[in-house]
Amino acid sequence: MKSPMAEGGIKAVAKALNLSASTVSRALNGVYGVNEDTRKLVRETASAMGYVPHLGAKQLVGKSSNMIGVFIPQFEFEASSGYVDMFSPLQLALQSHGKDALFFSIPFLHYPKDRLTECIGSRSLEGCLIFPAFSLSHPIMQEALALNLPCVNFENVVGPRCSSVVSDDREGGRLVGRKLAEKGHRVIGFLSGPPQIRICQERYEGFCEGLREAGIAHDPSLVAIGDFSGSSGADLAIRLRNEHPGMTALFCANDLMAMGAMMAFAKSGVSVPDQVSIVGYDGDHFTPYTSPPMTTIKHSREEVSSTAVKLLMELLEGNPGRGTSVPPQLIMRQSLIGLD
């Protein structure tokens, strides 16, 4: 059977559906003005007939590529990979708007100058989604703001053509503080990542607020500064336990440090949760399978993903950048118990 490309491509699809070629073209290219049912029918028919739009030809005639760049940090140190869970919902949300994603792994520590500009130019990207931990101070975000290309990030950076959606880290910390107070804990350690990182500050501030609601002031000597790695969680958990033998709970700023703490306590004969309850943060996929299963704050990754794409569509339509947040959820498991 001949392919529709050989028989005229868009014209063949139009003839099969008794539609004009211009309507089929607009439907396939996601252009405004086509009924959604018609758009869906055109795409399904084109797919069944084996028609694939020629991206290079579209770009040569000045049409949009419908491609969105997704920029992911490439770390040279141990770090959580929980953001991988967002790839699929982001792709699905983009495809629902006639867009597709190209994923780029970008060095976090040794960022190549003008790398974002090169990626955008070489692929004719219409916009970009930039993952944590690329914050305002990172060169890629500075470059994104200067380029004035529609851009959505997850680090609270907002500009004329730049929007942001974040998981509400202050609320997540507040949920932990409230729950630990409710369970009777008073001497509570906090393992932070680097304090200059926004999420560390917000998670700790929210945690302290949650405790204050119960009339508890957190002792700053119970704070230890890690680097988000499991090894730092292990070392600091033991140090805090030695310095504060009465510590009954430990809140870690990410799940990887919490897992390191659980491992270190197990090796040193400290029972979790009988002697020390542990709470993590992020809701990484491994948390139900630790021993015991880990209580954690889980990001609403699907809602964050769909919101990010919605914000990007707003920017592509010419609207100004704005910021929003999505509340996280406390997942109770066996690593946290109440005091008798």
Give the total of beta strands.
12
The general outline is elongated
SS summary, helix count: 12
Structural class: alpha/beta
Q: Short description, anyone?
A:
This is LacI family transcriptional regulator. This protein has helices at about 10-15, 20-30, 35-50, 55-60, 85-95, 115-125, 140-145, 170-180, 200-210, 230-245, 255-265, 300-315, and strands at about 65-75, 100-105, 125-130, 150-155, 160-165, 190, 225, 250, 275-280, 295-300, 325, 330.
Word description of this protein:
The chain contains 12 helices and 12 strands. The chain has helices at 10-17, 21-28, 36-48, 55-60, 87-95, 115-123, 139-147, 169-182, 198-212, 230-243, 255-267, 301-316, and strands spanning 67-74, 100-107, 127-130, 151-153, 162-167, 188-192, 223-225, 249-252, 277-282, 295-298, 323-326, 329-331. A 6-stranded parallel sheet has the order 2-1-3-4-5-11, with helices on both faces. Helix 1 packs across helix 2, helix 5 (87-95) runs parallel beside helix 12 (301-316) and helix 10 packs across helix 11 (255-267). It is elongated. Residues 1-7 and 54-63 have low confidence and may be disordered.
